[in-house]
Q: What sequence folds into this?
């Protein structure tokens, strides 16, 4: 037999008087990590520049792989930029190994160019400073800023909202495009500079100016690939339009027998020996 005990309902505690005014306080929410990463672009640049002196932390093998692929499959290089966006939420490089290797090639090509055009030891250092800080970095800062502004102002699919082109990515695109140009004009051209290009023959003008055509054309093409890889940009094919002007200018130089490579050598001599 089971006995059932009768239980009384629970007694609620006496209600406290309700205040006439209720003040709600909201705790500040912690920022989203992805949003916080976007808001600390300056800290990312500082971290990037600080890593330039830490060679053991750089992936030089991967940077060298990118340099090779820039010649025969540049699309794979920008595919890696897309992977970086998915994993680290940034398009720009976070490893300065590519910039360090590019500096090495700038020094090596400047040594070869100085020997070919007959510069002294002191003038070589002046020439090297010009090539690194003016031709590569100075012009690169100007070009990257112009493309960064044009892309964010005119090429975005949504002008009012959505992601924007990172300035660091624009500078990386310039470095990617500058490396093949450097190898064509400052390395490959040296082999033919004295034997053919600097001679007073049309074949020299044709060979030298054709190298300039390929170098500038390839710079424009790799720049186009860099911005067309961004999914939030539209009508990036307009970046290929300067190719028409380059081709017309190339034909004019051949008609006028204007040797661009010889003019470049004369310009290097002038700015090195000028006070």
A:
């Amino acid at each position: 037999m089971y006995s059932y005990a009768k239980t009384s309902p629970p007694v609620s505690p006496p209600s406290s008087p309700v205040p006439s005014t209720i003040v709600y306080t909201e705790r500040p929410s912690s920022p989203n990590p992805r949003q916080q990463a976007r808001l600390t672009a300056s800290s990312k640049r500082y971290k990037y520049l600080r890593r330039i002196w830490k060679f053991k932390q750089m992936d030089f093998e991967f940077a060298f792989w990118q340099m090779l692929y820039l010649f025969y499959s540049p699309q794979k290089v920008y595919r890696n930029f897309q992977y970086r966006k998915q994993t680290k939420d940034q398009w720009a490089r976070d490893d300065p190994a590519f910039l360090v290797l590019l500096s090495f090639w700038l020094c090596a090509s400047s040594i070869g160019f100085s020997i070919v055009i007959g510069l002294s030891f002191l003038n070589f250092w002046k020439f090297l400073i010009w090539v690194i800080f003016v031709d590569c970095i100075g012009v690169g800062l100007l070009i990257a800023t112009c493309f960064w502004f044009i892309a964010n102002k005119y090429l975005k699919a949504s002008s009012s909202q959505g992601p924007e082109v990172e300035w660091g990515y624009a500078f990386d695109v310039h470095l990617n495009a500058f490396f093949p140009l450097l190898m064509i004009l400052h390395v490959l051209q040296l082999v033919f500079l004295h034997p053919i290009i600097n001679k007073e023959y049309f074949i020299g003008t044709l060979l030298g100016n054709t190298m300039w055509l390929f170098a500038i054309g390839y710079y424009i093409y790799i720049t186009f690939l860099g911005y067309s890889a961004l999914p939030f940009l539209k009508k990036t094919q307009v970046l290929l339009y300067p190719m028409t002007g380059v081709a017309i200018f190339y034909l004019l130089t051949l008609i006028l027998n204007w040797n661009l490579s010889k003019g470049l050598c004369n310009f290097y001599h002038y700015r090195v020996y000028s006070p």
